[in-house]
Amino acid sequence: MSKRKQSQAASRLEGLWDDLRAGDPGAVHAARKLTRRAQAELRVADAGKKTERAWRDLRRAAAPLRDHDVAGGHIRDALVELGVPEGTLAYFDRTWAERRAALLDATVWPDRPPAFDLRRGWKGRARRLIGKDGDRLLRDGEAALASEDSEEWHAWRKRLKRYRYTLDLIGGVPPIVTVTLEALGRLQDAEVVLGILHGDPDLLRYERARLIAREEVARQAARERVRALFPTLAEHLEDPLGTPPTGEGEPEEDHVGA
Asked: Is the CB of residue 207 less than 8 Å from the CB of residue 76?
């Protein structure tokens, strides 16, 4: 039986807490990944509702800033790809930085979440959760792929991401999980960028139509990519612990909508 073990998420968070509260982009990125790991660790801990709530509050506090950074990166890359003038890029950089400053000013950081331990026997608990997760993810994935509802796709992605971090607790993650999450992440990025462009007609008004067209193509391509990957993912989900893993490493690139 596995022994009690200190949460890695909690120990790593302490070292970047001050930078996080200052809004450092790298710290915001790292903190959001740590909240995802903590979410998986808390599934096999006896930390209590108060600790779970503290980590959830931190994830929600950091999300708007990180989503802003990721979405801004996509929009800027698109502008470069479209060959817009340097003046347009400078305008976007200035506008996006002003928006980020306003977001940071409005952010209310919670107290740092407490440390916690993974309970005795946590590996066995993780394996049981992985088996149950596989069954549900298979059903939910089939339903999402048959739908055009972006919220259904996003909900499935969030559950698959939690599953990915739970897998990582006991070993490596099969490549099919990582590449599927990457495609789902690009889909969510497109949804968010489209929401920004449709919601603010004054933002990049002269490039808006081309940006929207680009993201609509990216959204459709991401969905088709996930559909193509799903048969292999389904084979894994039918026997999650029988799929040869890779090394632990980091998950797929960060995307909006943690």
From this structure: no
